[in-house]
Amino acid sequence: MKKITVILRNKTPLHSSAPGVSKITLDGRIGDANGFPLIRTRTMPLPAPRGEGVMTMVPVPLIPNNTMRNALRRAMLDSVFNQLRGRASISVGAYAGANSGNASGNPEGVPATFDETMAIRNHVFLGLFGGGPRMIEGRLKVDALYPIHPDALRTIGDGYEERMISGKLTDVVWQRRVDPISQAADESVAELITGGAESLTAWAVNSLEQSRRAADKRNKGGKKGAKAEEGAEEAEEDGGRGLKAFNAHEVVVPGIDWLWRIKMENPTKAQVGLVLQGINRIGDVQIGGGHAKSYGEVEIQDVLLDGESIWDGSSLASESAEDYFDALAEALDGLKAADFENFVQSSKDGE
Predict the structure, then answer these.
(1) Deepest of 28, 314, 332, 338, by most Cβ within 10 A of its Cβ?
(2) 32 pLDDT above the threshold of 80
(3) Which pTM was predicted?
(4) E strand spans, 232-335
């Protein structure tokens, strides 16, 4: 079993959406039915000390293992496909299988033969992730990304105290959508829009009506007197939930160190090399959601292979990794398009 430990630091906010939508008011009250839409970040309850030796389950933000697994796959795939570009092509089904493990998402329920299983498991890329119509098990096991924080100490273990930051890990980012018509209603726009000034006027009237309806709806939620008037003004200001509206989402603040554990069961040297190369390029892959906002940019702080650091501060340049990279280069030279076509081929295709 090969074990790799990676310490990452998020340079920008990090976000992995929790299912469902909550509500938040402008003064930060979460759960208020009269608030604005809030997308929470994903958390997991972990046991954490809360005084006098008492352990309490505390929600801690994390990035799920399937997200990290997919990020590592994306970081590897360029190296893999670059060996085929210009000298071979693969079918769209084979491409989908390489990206997701299965071209159709429907396993056959037919066991793979021993020879097929070993051929796939020893493949430099396919053997790591496995999958295919016969659901061959891959050698790669990827853990979730845990913050190095006192509330996660029991889960991540000792030895990370110097990287630990206490306190709240998350904050709320507000966004405001702006009505593009109200912001650009001049003569040049009127000349471009069918119906000209009349269409722009009708749009403005409709937008105002939506704002007033939104204000009425918010005020029925319990606001009275001055608060109701403030709510109405606020709703008119932001246009309710239309093209001009507030919404928010919860993010993990930048500058947090995270622990990421990766395991490989009896891998080949080339497979270890490919995983290390993928880790080396993980800074080029955004983690989690919010890509359009540049969320999820990370940088490597350290990489340990079987407990030994192989990170020199900017790359995996240790002599400990050379054998693995040499084996990887040889395996990539031998890649064939047929490897990926055979991987996604149904057992019925040969009948």
Answers:
(1) 332
(2) yes
(3) 0.79
(4) 246-252, 257-264, 298-305, 308-309
Give the separation between CA 169 and CA 60, rounded to whole angstroms. 8
CB atoms within 10 A of CB 185: 17
Rounded Cα distance between 320 and 317, Å, is 8
**What is the residue-wise DSSP string for 291-306?**
GGGTTT-EEEEEEEET
Report whether 1 contacts 265 (CB < 8 A): yes
Residues 295-325 pLDDT 10s: 999 999 999 999 999 998 888 876 778 899 9
Which helix (H) or strand (E) covers residue 68, if one does?
helix 65-82
Q: How far is CA 53 from CA 49, 56, 156, 160, in A?
A: 6, 10, 19, 21
Supply 347's token pair: 């057992």
Give every CB contact of residue 341 below 8 A, 6+ residues apart in sequence.
Answer: 90, 91, 94
Q: Cα separation of 190 and 205, whole Å?
A: 16
- Residue 88 tokens read as 């071979």
Task: Give me the helix-helix angle, 65-82 and 269-280, nearest 10°.
Answer: 110
The angle at the Cα of 149, spanning 3 to 4, to the nearest 5 degrees, equals 10
Q: Would you say 97 and 341 are in contact if contact means Cβ atoms under 8 Å apart?
A: no
Instruction: Please tell me the distance from the alpha carbon of residue 91 to that of residue 111, in angstroms, as a whole number.
Output: 24
Torsion of CA 19, 20, 26, 29, to 10 degrees: -80
Contact 305, 321 (CB under 8 A): yes
Query: Is the separation of the CB atoms in 337 and 84 below 8 Å?
Result: yes
Strand order in the sheet with 140-147: 140-147, 257-264, 2-10, 298-305, 308-309
**Could you give phi then psi for residue 176, rounded to 5 degrees?**
-130, 120
Q: Give the Å distances, CA to CA, from 270 to 1, 17, 264.
A: 15, 35, 12
The predicted-structure confidence for 275-287, as pLDDT tens digits, reads as follows 999 999 998 999 9
